[in-house]
Structures are given as structure tokens and as C-alpha cells.
Queue: 4 jobs
Job 1
Amino acid sequence: MDGQLDSDRASDVVTAIELAGLKHIKSGKVRELYESGENLLLVATDRVSAFDCILPNGIPGKGRLLTSISAFWFDFFHDLVPNHLIAWRGADFSPALDAWRSVLDGRSMEVRKTSPLPIECVVRGYLAGSGWKEYQKSGKVCGVALPAGLTNGDRLPEPVFTPATKAESGHDENISFEQAASMVDRELLEKVRDLSLEIFRRAHDFMLQRGLILADTKFEFGLYEGELMLIDEVLTPDSSRFWARHCHMPGAPFQYGFDKQIVRNYLETLDWDKTPPAPPLPDDLVQQVAEAYDFIHQILTRPV
């Protein structure tokens, strides 16, 4: 068989993939990257990571949900910014992928080869996570001064652009706009900042109408033949914080949400030093995460 998936058939969890005959470029925490002629192939497994560690058990259906959600947003924003997506359905893949159409269908994206920018474009609309921790110490997030007296979970007066480094290993590091400007041409960085903020605002308003709060997220951009493109994944539960609008309680230690924070919150309760090997997730938590991701997918893609 040309395409072989290593999966737990009992729970239909794909944590590893091998596509014999395609050039494998690298493995990410969740995705496998292959070369497909002039294009690239991003294959989303069901792996889950937290604190830069891949956990031993995956989340059923996660890869397909992440792919479908990203495809939804790429289409949603196509009038605002070009993107690298060529196809994500098996029937639409190029002939070079004929042998693996059924294996790849729904969990893979055939994309253009871009030159990714060396920063992650983080936008925060609410105070949470590392932003909250930094604010408590300095009253700022990535060099951006915020009003005094804010609490965990508060909405910011305006969304803020807070770039971060892309770490090959270890943690991504929050950096200031000026630090980012030493890594990316300033004019290009300003364009990326403005695009990131506009994407966030449109997505936030769209989701608010559907009972969700987009608290923060991160985007990635790349250059293709000199054109700036939105790449990688977009506004998924792996890359964003999604909170239930009617359960929003500023000041509470946690907000009721539907994203990977569920996993982080659980791991914080364990006596684990956040270094490999990571502990397995209990079955009921795996189910909870799977249902949360599926819920986000349904909310986003349902007809108005």
C-alpha cells in the first residue's frame, strides 16, 4: 500500500503517518510536511501538544477538524488577503497525489511554497495566558502599555498586535514590534500588523454573533513570488482561545472555552515539570477536547 496510516482503530486516532514515495520535509507538533512537485502538502495528524511537548495520546478527528476550519477561514478572508491553499479535498488534489487521495482527503492541504516570515503574528483582544502574566509584572504586553486595573479575562480597549518568535525547540518568545522589525522589513511588518488586526476584528465580530468570543489568536504569513499570503492554520482551537460569550467572567482564573486550553488547564493540575515525556490524557478529557473542537467546527460552518 502506497499510503499507510498508523492509527488506533478502536478510537480512530491518527498520530503518525507515512506516505511512501513522497519526499518528507519535516514533522511538526501536529503536522507532517511533504513535497508535492512544485507544491507542499501539509498533513494534519490527531496529535496534541502542550507546553512544547507532544502528548502520547491524540484527539479523535482533530486533524480533519483543524483542516476544515482553516479551509473555512481561508475562504472567508479571500477578499482581504491571498492565501496559500490550493486544495484540501481529495478530488481536488493535483495528479501527483493520486495514490493517496483517500488517505489525505479532509486532513491535508496542498499549498503553494511560500517563504514564511520568521515571526508569529499574535493578536490579543482580551487579557489571558502569557499576556496576563506579563501585564501583572509590567502593565504591558510585548511593549504595548495597557490601562491600569485590568484583570484576567478583561476585554482590551482595542486588539493589540504582539508578535512572537518561532522557536524550533522550546518556547516561542513574545517580542516587541521594534524587535520584530529587526527580523522583518518594517514596511512589510506594518502591513502584516494591519492585516492581522483586521482579520481578528472581522473574525471576532463574526464569532460574537454566534455566541463565541475570540480572545486571542496567532497568524502566519509568507511570501509567494513577492506576494504576501496568509499561510499555515487559521483561527483553529489549536491556535486560538475561543470562549463562550454568555459564560465570560473577567477575573475568574479560567474562562469556559472550546480550545486547547482545556488540555493545558488539566496538565497544570499535575505534578509534571513540563518536560518530555508528557503524561497521557485521561479518556474523559480526550472526549471533552474532541467535542469542543467539533463544536467550534459546527458553530463556524453552520448556515446563518
Job 2
Amino acid sequence: MDLTTSRDIELLTEAPPPPGELIEVASNLYWARLPLPIRLNHVNLWFMREHATKEHGEGWLVVDAGLDAPTCREAWEKLLAGPLRGLPVRRLILTHGHPDHVGLAGWLSERFDSTLHATRTEWLFAHWRRERQGHVFGRPMQHFLMSHGLSPEMVERFAAQDSAIDRGEFPVPEQHVRLRHGETHTFGGHEFRVIVGSGHADEHASFLRAQGHVLIAGDQILQRITPVIGVFGHEPQGDPLSDYFASLPRFEALPQDTLVLPSHGLPFHGLHARIEQLRAHHEARLAELLCHMREPRNAFALASLIFERAMQEEQGRFALAETLAHLHHGETIGVVRRLVQKDGGTNFVRV
């Protein structure tokens, strides 16, 4: 969902690097952009040059890998032949396990014998996604969707949307170096602190460089759109929006002048103002839902009311997931009540 950028948000630049090129955004910290063949049409990667060690020769460290798609591979080849000077990727740092971030991690690991650094949950989640490629929705998933108001025909459409995303992942590396919240690591000659957040992903890692106050934010804090925060069928009782809200103070504690490097959109200053916008957006979305809940409604009906455009553009699975995230958060704070019907269907009503 787009949010209006206020005067408190200052863009570092309005011109992203073309595919195959780098822009230096801080000392030994470079920005590349890969085109994606999906509605969210790009992902940002962050590169650092690393000196030779006893274990490895000179090379690069990169945060995230991109989707396993021809457009991303072509951009990678241009980077390697051009600004990366033919040097290998020695270390790959993962923010989280979604396909547009981890899709080419295995390809890079095989090509350069690079090590993967990730939180354990996101590494395992990436493996789980890869293992279930090509699987149709099983009975539990079908029941979950139909309990929230989907017809069998809509379940098939959602399954097709899901499988289209699943195709963007090369086999995930078999090993990883575990990242934990609060740890400090040296990347590209600078110290970075790991900040783990939840909501968009269960154990999403962002990285703060104290020198210069630079935050590689991943998808946790985005510049123009809100991160997808949704309840999907693999955790039907989850409350990711409450988890997301609980994570925000970790970022509000960072300096006001922090340069935020998001995975989508443009680098910007104005972290605190952006967090305020994101929190206000979700609170307004819940308030909008409550206006439609004077009488009990199922989640699919509510999603169709507030995400009409997304439903028409084959984004229904995300619309339903985000609607459920707000409803579950509403239950947690006591403004929504769940009503389970005799036939297994579920409705929600405002308290």
C-alpha cells in the first residue's frame, strides 16, 4: 500500500542505479537494483568490498540475492563483468527468506563457494518454501481459506497465485552462519549490529552501521510502501501485526539522522517519521475494517470491501492475508470478536 511521503522524509536520491550498475551511498557501501518480473518490479541489493583474508581472496559481500529469474541473472552478470570487476561474492548476508531476497542465494553459493549468513528461522523458512514448490494446497490449507469465505474456485485461483511466486527460488544453500539479534559483525571493514524484527517475516534481520548511522533495513522499514504483513495458511492463528508493532521500538531507538536503505524504494532520511506513518497506516486500516463490522462478516468479504483493486489485480491472497492480520490484531487488543459457525466458517464482528 502506497503512503504519502511527508516533508519529514528526505530522499537521498530520486535516481536508482540502472541494472548492472552501482551507486555508492556510504563509505564502501554500494547500491544495486535488480528488476523483478512481478508487480513489485525491483529489489535493492547492498554491496561491500572485502579484503583478502587467510581463508579467502579479495571479493565482495552482498546483502540479499534477488529472485531466480532471467532479469535478475542478467543484471548479476552485468554487475560481475562491470563494477564488481570480476571478483567473487565471498559472503551473502540474508535479511529474510522471501523469494525476491533468497531466490538466487544458492546460485551464488554454488558459483563462488560463498557463505550464507542468516537468522535460523529465515534460513529454515526458505528451505520450507523451496521443498513445497509444485505442491497443490492440501486439505488443511483449503479448509483454512474456505473457512474465511472463499469458494472452491477462488481457492484454485489463490493456489495459482502462490505457485507463480514459488517458481523464483534456486535450491537454498545447505549451510548457513547463524545471525542473532544484538550481535555485532564486521562487514566490509565496518561494524554492523543485527536488529531482528518480526511481522513481515518471523526473524527478519536488519543491519545498523554505527559509523555514519546507516541502516540496511530490508523489508522491515520501506520508503514508499508498507511491508506485507499477513496471516497465511501455514500459521492460521498467527498475529503478525502485533509482532510488527512490538518490533518498531527497536528502530525508534536509532538516531534521528539514520540513513535508511530499504529493499524496495529509495534510500531516505526520516526514520522516526516513517515509523510513525507505518504505525498510523495500520491503525487506520483497522479502523476502516471496524466500520464494516457492525454486523458479522467473513474475512474474504471484508478484504473485498477494502482491497477491491487488489482483488481485481490477482493480488487476492495478499489482500486476505493482510485483512486477517488486522483482524487478529484487533482480537488481541480487544476490539474484534471471532464467531465460529457450526459449519466451520468464521466471521468477525466489532466489540
Job 3
Amino acid sequence: MRDEDLQRAAMMLHHRKAGLAQGDPIAAPIVMSSAYHLPQVQAGGHSYTRAGNPTWDEVEAQLTLLEDAPSLAFPSGMAAISAALMACVQGGGRIVLPSDGYYVTRVFADHFLRPLGVDVVFLPAKDYGAADFSGAAVVYIESPTNPALDVIDISAVAARARAAGAKVIVDNTTMTPLLQRPLDMGADLVVAADTKAPAGHGDVLFGHVAGRDAALMARVADWRRMSGAIPSPFDAWLVHRGLETLELRLSRMCASAGEIARRLQGHKALLALRYLGLPDDPDHDLARRQMAGFGFLIGMTFADEARAERFLSRCPMIAQATSFGGVHTSGERRARWGDHVPLGFIRLSVGIEPIEPLWVAISSAMID
């Protein structure tokens, strides 16, 4: 991680200090109230929890420090994604999305935006570099893509999209703001599922939207308030606590993923291996320029579905789960959801286990 990212992480740990009075709790409290004392509407403060909550304020302050931009909390990553899209597109508008990105984003656009008169265009991530964005209202970028780990040149694509008059939304879930900063590369909005590494413990759904355009963020806030897509105070508190250890966990996860990927290179059980930190990965050079680290995700391709599933079931240190970014190493054969990957492809998310026991478990499970 870069020095400025470490500085943000350090500041985040002490973001409450300036506002503390004698005897105040160091840890953020959970405020479980739906309504607030409101004798005068114009006097300010919280009014109703659908519009705001003190515990949200705390986690949004953390996210704002990490993103270096105003941030709004949502009850899931998809709530954040749908809010950003709804804030930017209208009937008759066109949006461009990756055909090989997160499948639920594709389903949302196809099943809900298209019937509202939105022209939905799907492009493979690798085609973004040469795509014509004329007439697009939104260009939606996912980089690296989930699950294939293809990298899009965010700066170049964002510049071309904005020149064409489009808003640029970047899904930064796989990297977090400590490893990649899309707003600094020209994005109008960043969306992320904080369910993953930011919360980190597999016990809460959460998401956020960040952006520096005040009017655009106001539309996102209005969507949250009027749609009721709000997080609970307890969930916000869990994410606040998780974020305090994000830098520590992320450092361990990325270091372990890099080492495991190096050891897996050339393994006879694999047809292909993807990790952006490997010098021979096709997107390594772009990832090195664009990111402050290579992440914790590894793509492993076995010869077929049966071998992939056998590996997952054999390994005692891989949780078979459809999520990633947690303290537990997890893996999933992503083709079962219809993702554009080979049947034997596994998305491996490396956790915080000590590296040697984890490697022994992984390598032993790969022996036929």
C-alpha cells in the first residue's frame, strides 16, 4: 500500500477523537432509534432513521476518509449499485455494463432497467478500451472483473466516457479504496460491497457509494431515503468495527495470496492460473500502474467441473461459499452461477490463516 493509503487507514482509527467530550465512549455506540427528539424541524439534527442515523454517521465518516470523498452507506453492495444506477440513468438513456462482470448487476439491468426503457448494452471488459461510448448516459466499469480478474484501464476509459457525456461508475469491491482509487482516475461514483473485505468477518451485508459531485451524491441520498434502502444501526456498527482492522487484514490476505499464487504456478492439476501479482499475468503491468496492491483473489482453472468440486470438498481450510474477502479462505466454482468462465474455474479468496498451514491444506487437496 502507498504511504497516503496507510495515512488514511491510520486517520480512520482516530476519526472520532476530535468530537469526543469528557467521558464519551471511544468505541462508536449503536443508536437503535427510529425517531429523534424533534420539537423544531428547522433546527437540524436527525429526524427519522430512514433519513439518517448516528451510527451510520460513524461508518460513513470512516468510508469518507478512505475514499477521500463523501460516502453513503447502504444495506448491501447491490443496494449501493442500484442506487448509483438509478441516480444516473433515466428512461431512454443508455448504459454500458461488462458482460463478464458480477452477474447480479447484469440481471438488475436486464430485468429492471431495460423494462423501464433503458437501453442496456453489455460489453466484455476487454472491449472497453476500444468501445464507442457515444450516446451513453452511464459507463459502468468493474475492475478487476468478478470473477475472471480482467483489468480495465480506468483512467483511459473514464476519460473517453466522460468526453462522450457519460457518467462513470466503478465497482471497486475487489480492491477496496486502500488498493485502488477510481475517483482519482476520473470516476464520478464508486460503488462497493463492504460485505466483503471492509467488514471482513462474513456476518453482515453492507455497501456504499462515494463521489465528489455534490449534486449527484444528493440524488443517491434521495434514492436511499425514498426507496428505504437503508442499513440497520447494528449492521453499520459491525462494519465500523470491521473497518478498523481492514488495513491489517488486507496486508496479510494480499501477501498470502501472492505467495500461494507463486507456489501454484505450473501445477500439473491446473489448466490456468490468474493472479494479478504474477509477472506473467496478462494484466500485471496495468494492475501495477493502477493499483497499490494485487489483491487477495486467485483464479484457478481445473480440467473440469468434477476436479474443481473435488478440490473444494477436500480442502479443510476452504469455506465453500458464494462470497469473498473474509477472514476465512473461501472458494467457489463460479460457472454454477452462469459466469463466463470455464466449468473448472474456481475463485479462491485468500483469508488470514497462517500461510504454511493454509498452503499444506491447499496443496494436499490438489493431489488426485
Job 4
Amino acid sequence: MKHPRYGLGSGKVEEIKEFLQHTKYEQIIVDEHMTPKQIYNLEKTTGVKVVDRERLILDLFYLRSTTSEAKLQIQLAEIKYELPRVRENARLLIGSERPGKGGSGEYIVDVKFRDLKRRMAFILEKLAESKRKRDLYHNQRVEDRMPIVSLVGYTSSGKTTLFNSLTLERNETSENLFTTLSTTTRSLIIGGRKLLLTDTVGFIRRLPTYMIEAFKSTLEESLQADMIILLIDSSESVDEIKVKYYSCLNVLEELKVDKEKIVIVFSKIDKAEFDNVRRAFTELKIVDPVLVSPKSGYGISKLRKSISRKIYPVLKDMDSSIIPEISNKVV
């Protein structure tokens, strides 16, 4: 480790300390993973609270969670964040003292550790129950021979806006991170046939494996889709587009998603610079991507045709008369 004491150089720490003396800031956010010891040392030296990247992501998750399953997933991620830190935090805060008469009782850390383990087992049981229900819904869709299309992409790429445009829904949209922390599914008609469209959790680069695992039950919706629309925000710089594109592909690869199902769609084209978009196509070697602006409606017709062409192989042996009528409700 390059800077084991603080996670950053001592010169930078002194610079931060001096800066804080002339401001009213009460918190430092470090865009990196930090150990409890590094956080403790930095807080002690600067006199303000320190939040590392993982803690910040968890806090943002908490702010944006709305469904009971999303809350459970976040709690699971937090426990996985806390578990490896329990012993080190205890050493820093209470030393090696044993509680109880004569110091013969259990270490406080052992009690905390077992409590976290019990909570984890409870949450995993609840999430398994949610997954069983989701599997039942999926099996019903398979029996009804209903194709599924999933919207995936980096957080704030415009998935929910596109979802609303295609389904005429009014789900919450925002430029804030993690507006969607649970999946929503609606039906729509394309090419005279019904299919299901799913809006999923937004991806983020450098997301720790344990966080991906915590949300895996909902991300697995993408695995079950017949077509996956990977949405890219074309209004950003070429470098940002490339970083987020490969970040999304890495997550999909980790989930073992079939690449043949993926269709690349560039969103927010009304805000993009043409030269940047053209350069992004060239550097990413993307041929004939779909360009859309969900807010203005530009490209939506072409996207619907792309969806139709992609899922027709799934539908070619189906008799449309057996496809049931379903309402626009969460399924």
C-alpha cells in the first residue's frame, strides 16, 4: 500500500488540514476504498468526519431506496461492508480490553460480529423469498411465451425516461444517482405483439463485488431477458462514454449475460455534440447504434423497430392468439 497511514500522502493531509482551518466544512469525502485505520488516522489529524467511496455509495443507496427489497439489499451490502471492519474498529476504539467482571467476559467485537451474522442470515432469507416470488412471475411469463426486454446502463443514463417514453408511464426520473434501486416491469405492444419491458438498477464503475452480489437478485432480471438495451448517455465526453460503456459491459459479463442479446442505444442525443458521438462510435467500434432522445421522442420509432427485429426470432413460432392480455401493472 502506497500510503498505509492515511490512504494519501502526509503532505496532502497537511494541505487538507490547513484548508479546513479556514472553512466550515465538517466532512471529507475520499473517492477511494479506505481501511478503518486510515479513516481513524485522517479523522484524528483533521478533526472532521471522513467518508470513503464505499460508505458514500451506501449512503446514497439509503437515500434513494423506496421498496422493501431495495432496503434489504442495501442492509445486506452494509453488513458486508462492516464485517471486515468490526475487529479493526474495535481495536482502534476500545483496545484489547475484555468487558465483564475481571475482564473474563466476551470481547465486544465478538458480540457485534455475531449480531451482524444473525442479521445477514435474516436478510438473506427475506431476499430468497423475494427471489422465489420473482421466479414464479418469470416462469409464468415463460409459460405465456411473453418476450422480455431489459433496460440497463450506467446510473443517470436516462433508462427510466426511456422506459416512461415507451410505456407511457410516469415513474420518477432525476439527474441524481440511483433514482432506480428496484426493477419495474410493464407491458407494451410492438409490431402488433405484446412484450414486457423492465427498468433496472443503474450500474456504477468500481462497484465492489459485495455490492453487486447484494443487488444480484434484481440484476438477474437482465439475465432472463430476450433482449438487453444498453443505454449510453451520449451528451457526455468521449472519455466518460468509454469509461461507463466498459464499466457496464464488465457488470454484464460478471452476471454472465449473453452478448448476443445486447443492443447499444445512445440516449440524450438532443444534448450531444455530433463530433463527440461520431468519435465515440469509432473508438468503441460500434456499428449502426440507435440514437434516441426520450424527452423529444427522436429515434423512438427506430428503437421500436430494432426491438421488433431482435425479438421476432423469439416470436416466430408463437401464435399471437395465445398471448394473453395483461394490464400495465407491475408484474
